[in-house]
TrEMBL record:
It holds the Pfam family ResIII. This is DNA/RNA helicase, superfamily II. Keywords: ATP-binding, Helicase, Hydrolase, Nucleotide-binding. The keyword Nucleotide-binding applies. It comes from the Bacteria. GO terms for molecular function: ATP binding; DNA binding; helicase activity; hydrolase activity. InterPro entries: Helicase/UvrB_N (IPR006935), Helicase_Restrict-Modif_Enz (IPR050742), P-loop_NTPase (IPR027417). GO terms for cellular component: cytosol. Residues 58-172 form the Helicase/UvrB N-terminal domain.
Length: 974
């Protein structure tokens, strides 16, 4: 992107960040050398290939890039202000136009970033990830006695309105209940597996639960070691205004407003509703001190959740600060780089000019650009489809509400047709979705042009036969009209629409433009007169969030996008946003239609099922005969784990580079070009910045490496596998001793003295750390010994726990010997799976079989040690039962079988089967368990010869000798 582009900073920073992150998923990216150990651990957990594989939810590419760009700008570049960031990421942009003068203004003299993310693409998750990144790094720095100005534990989250404000409180504190808020329903708690490393969860949960302040508590609530203040932008706008009016302009020649004088002299007055309540008066008085409180904090990170109220208003050649930007500027005073601002917006621009001269003026501090077009192409939001029925196309261009003889607004004929079209589509979706999943409830959103039209829309739907509970009307005066208690019930009903059948229709004016983050809006009828692109995109954005996220729907949605891109109508309405739009707004969608990002549907498609060929498959009658009971062995009360003494002398040394070569790499070489190694005195030791593990000395290095290995070996199984075999219990003192012995006696093949000439610094280099991890993790596992005091307890998980499985009828096969009447196979590259299902169904030696869903049968996941020594998980493809045995069958392309990690999966699965086979026969139905990896060529060779599938599995299974050979082969590799 050229230097004069309005998004040059985002483009330059993204390019540089991507270079730093090459190999990020595999843990070998250059970025790991330039961030703190805390950030490195977060990056591994958020974006590591194996970590992502075991979760059902992960950050999508747009969220990932926004997080990485922010970390690069703030932690690696450490830009103290916006101009400094431009000079590092997009220097050419400063030499074009007025950009240098613009970014040099005082309001940009602190770290300031804007993340441009399309509506519906999860800005709140990025906000929470960045907050956790700051919090954990600040905790780590303080624990080491370091004052790192880049990080903070003081946060202010500003929302664009009440709906978004309530949504953020839900995200951090949990949903409201009669007894308060249920933290277990918060985003932080529900998605902790994604957001927070396990060893930090308790600290993060404690901080969030004790330090969140709502807008009435800012400056009043006592918090221990930080703050997460959440407020809507009006609070700071009001706090930042002067006593005489809403602006700071001085007009000495004008008479002051009498009411303003009274307000200035008597700032605290009893309200009509609350009387002389001291609690109310105290809160109102304290509210005026919010700005002073925030300005007085030594450091602060501000998140603007939807930065629509902080921009500059540009008219002709004049630029005016609007809304609460003056308050923000005052808060930032005297904080320098200890004030950090992160703005989120789907539309970070102002529209200036008119007609042919209309153009967008983007914010200058945009560092990441994930636009709606990209989100549409990647299938991260619903695909918009426009109604092109003749009745709507024939409407007159004027479609505003009309007036009766008394001047009262009434719905026009055009508006009534549009509402009926939306209602018809809603009913169609309700019928189709109910057949697929009765717990999915599509909703319709109607956006009115003004508050006077809203009750007319409600009355129209009632006349169409809808009950009162089917409709909910929301406008900005609703809270005042209802009062706090009644509004809480309305708000709860509004935010829970995804989970309940009613309300079916939501009618709003403009209150739901931002922050109304629900998934089930499938039909939008925009009855408004404004044609401003910002308002149009915000309105449509309320329905863009995905409703069907499970992997079973991915193929159907992908094919829909392909059909739309080629100008054809979609086959189903799974994650389709149906827009009953007036032709007057066709220019807004013209670009989307031309690029194949939006589609159209005519009258002939209005009788379609809405779900295409998606079906819901339930358990068959008599499924018990074909069910699989997977045994899990418990030894918590009856067993303990010990490690035999490690044979340090038999562990392989590091031979890739000599100590002399490693010394030459400190500050040199491809992997270390960007590293700035600086030594500074710290408690009589040395601190090395930019290393793989940032430490204050050799003892600190040993302690951290011990902790990392212990945490890895002690990692519990994933959610859903709580009754699986107990995980490793590591004695950290013993482990530290073994590490110390290995480093001094064996690591370099001869005695090594860490304190001789600061030799310990060589241990910080990536190749050395990787080698130590690869050697020690398998050695510790091999040395583990379990001692049982009594017979272990066995629990069972059954495949039939998944009693309903959605799948595509066209990509599934009818089967007889399975708990389900049909089994799915992948639409792409699923030929081997399909062939195995067909063969198993015809082979009379197979008594029962079933495909494993990696996401829905999550308890079937098995753990193994990767090549790099890190624990990971995988699930077999099928379970197959004969008269004598149960086989864990994995179908593999021929090239995958010999990969190092495939061999490790093989060893782990076979070991697990051996453990099951050690149980008494009655606890495994007198069946022997085997792991049978089936390579593609072997599979087709046996099938072509007319052999039985059961005999192939028995031939391919791993026996104990094979298992031991595999283990020895892995040892020899080390």
């Amino acid at each position: 992107m050229s230097g004069n582009s309005p998004l040059a900073l985002a483009a330059g920073l993204t390019d540089q960040t991507r270079q730093l992150c090459i190999g990020l998923e595999n843990g070998v990216a250059a970025i790991f050398d330039q961030v703190t150990p805390t950030t490195a651990a977060l990056l591994h957990g958020w974006f590591g290939e194996e970590a992502c594989a075991i979760r059902s939810l992960n950050f999508h590419p747009g969220q990932k890039q926004a997080i990485l760009n922010t970390i690069t700008a703030h932690e690696i570049y450490a830009a103290a202000d916006l101009q400094s960031l431009y000079r590092q990421a997009a220097p050419a942009a400063l030499s074009t136009g007025t950009r240098l003068a613009e970014v040099s203004q005082s309001k940009h003299r602190h770290p300031k970033y804007c993340l441009k993310m399309a509506a519906g693409t999860g800005k709140t998750w990025v906000l929470q990830a960045l907050l956790i990144w700051q919090l954990l790094n600040k905790n780590a720095a303080l624990a080491e006695g370091v004052d790192d100005a880049r990080f903070t534990r003081h946060f202010l989250i500003v929302t664009p309105g009440l709906i978004a404000y309530d949504r953020l409180l839900d995200a951090f504190c949990g949903k409201q209940t009669e007894g308060g808020r249920d933290f277990a329903t918060s985003d932080i708690a529900q998605y902790a597996e994604l957001f927070v490393p396990e060893n930090h969860r308790e600290a993060v949960f404690h901080f969030v639960r004790g330090n969140v302040c709502d807008k009435t508590e800012i400056g009043l609530k006592t918090t221990g070691n930080g703050m997460i203040a959440i407020a809507d932008w009006h609070l700071l706008r009001e706090a930042g205004t002067e006593a005489f009016g809403e602006t700071k302009l001085e007009t000495p020649g004008a008479a002051p407003d009498p009411q303003a004088v009274v307000n200035a002299l008597l700032p605290v007055m009893p309200g009509k509703a609350a009387g002389n309540s001291l609690d109310v008066l105290d809160k109102r008085f304290a509210r005026g001190d919010v700005l002073d409180f925030l300005a007085g904090l030594p450091e602060l990170m501000v998140f603007n959740h939807a930065a629509l109220h902080i921009h500059d208003l540009k008219r002709e050649s004049e630029t005016t600060e609007v809304e609460w930007q003056p308050s923000l500027t005052r808060i930032a005073e005297n904080k320098d780089r200890r004030f950090m601002q992160v703005d989120f917006s789907a539309t970070p621009y102002n529209t200036v000019g008119s007609g042919k001269n209309k153009r967008k003026v983007y914010f200058p501090h945009i560092i990441a650009d994930f636009d709606l077009k990209t989100a549409l192409r990647q299938g991260l939001v619903k695909s918009p489809v426009l109604d092109k029925r003749k009745k709507i196309g024939a409407l007159p261009l004027e479609f505003k509400a009309e007036r009766d003889e008394n001047g009262n607004p009434i719905l026009s004929a055009g508006q009534r047709v549009m509402l009926r079209a939306g209602l018809q589509k809603l009913r169609q979706l309700e019928a189709g979705f109910a057949r697929l999943d009765p717990n999915r409830h599509p909703k319709m959103l109607v956006i009115c042009e003004d508050a006077a039209v809203l009750p007319r829309v409600v009355n129209f739907f009632r006349a169409e036969g809808l009950a009162e509970m089917d409709i909910i009307a929301i406008d900005s005066g609703k809270k005042v009209e209802l009062g706090e208690q009644d509004w809480a019930r309305v708000r709860e009903r509004l935010f829970e629409v995804d989970r309940h059948a009613t309300p079916r229709i939501i009618v709003s004016v403009s209150m739901l433009r931002e922050g109304f983050d629900v998934n089930n809006i499938c039909v939008i009828v925009p009855l408004r007169s404004s044609q401003a692109p910002v308002l149009l995109e915000q309105s449509i954005g309320r329905g863009l969030r995905l409703m069907w996220r499970e992997p079973e729907f991915a193929d159907s949605k992908r094919e829909n996008r392909e059909r739309i891109a080629s100008g054809r109508e979609p086959d189903s309405l799974i994650d389709i946003l149906w827009i009953v739009e007036h032709p007057a707004f066709a220019p807004f969608y013209a670009e989307w239609l031309q690029e194949g990002l939006a589609g159209t549907v005519g009258e002939e498609r209005h009788t379609a099922s809405g779900v295409g060929d998606m079906i819901s498959v339930n358990l068959r009658e008599g499924f018990e005969a074909f069910d699989f009971a997977i045994p899990f062995i418990l030894h918590e009360a009856e067993a303990w784990l010990e490690h035999r003494e490690l044979a340090i002398g038999k562990l392989p040394p590091f031979s890739a580079l000599s100590p002399a070569q490693l010394k030459a790499m400190l500050g040199k070489g491809d992997a270390f070009v960007s590293r700035d190694l600086q030594s500074s005195a710290l408690f009589g030791d040395y601190r090395i910045d930019g290393a793989v593990i940032k430490v204050t000395g050799y003892n600190d290095f040993l302690s951290r490496l011990t902790r990392r290995l212990a945490q890895a070996l002690s990692r519990p199984l994933p959610k859903g596998s709580r009754i699986a075999a107990p995980y490793q219990q590591v004695n950290t003192a013993e482990l530290a001793g073994w590490l110390e012995s290995y480093i001094r006696e064996r690591l370099f093949g001869r005695p090594f003295e860490p304190f001789d000439g600061e030799n310990w610094r060589l241990l910080l280099l990536q190749p050395v750390v990787d080698h130590i991890t690869r050697v020690m993790a398998p050695a510790l596992l091999e040395a583990a010994q379990t001692h049982a005091g009594s017979t272990g307890e066995v629990h069972y998980r059954r495949l039939s726990e998944l009693n309903q499985w959605p799948m595509r009828e066209s990509c599934s096969l009818a089967v007889d010997k399975c708990i389900y009447p049909r089994l799915p196979y992948a639409a792409r590259n699923g030929d081997l799976e399909k062939a195995l299902i067909e063969w198993a169904n015809l082979d009379d030696s197979v008594r029962a079989f079933c495909k494993i869903s990696a996401t829905r049968h999550d308890f079937a996941k098995r753990r193994y040690v990767r090549e790099d020594g890190v624990f990971a998980f995988y699930a077999p493809d099928f379970l197959l039962r004969t008269g004598q045995a149960v086989y864990l069958v994995e179908t593999q392309a021929q090239a995958q079988i010999s990969s190092p990690n495939a061999q490790r999966k093989l060893t782990a699965a076979a070991a697990w089967c051996e453990r099951i086979n050690a149980l008494p026969g009655k606890e495994r139905s007198h069946l022997t368990w085997h792991y049978a990896p089936l390579g593609e060529s072997l599979f087709y060779e046996w099938r072509h010869k007319g052999e039985r599938l059961a005999e192939l599995c028995d031939f391919a299974r791993l026996s104990a000798p094979v298992l031991h050979d595999s283990q020895n082969r892995l040892k020899s590799e080390l």
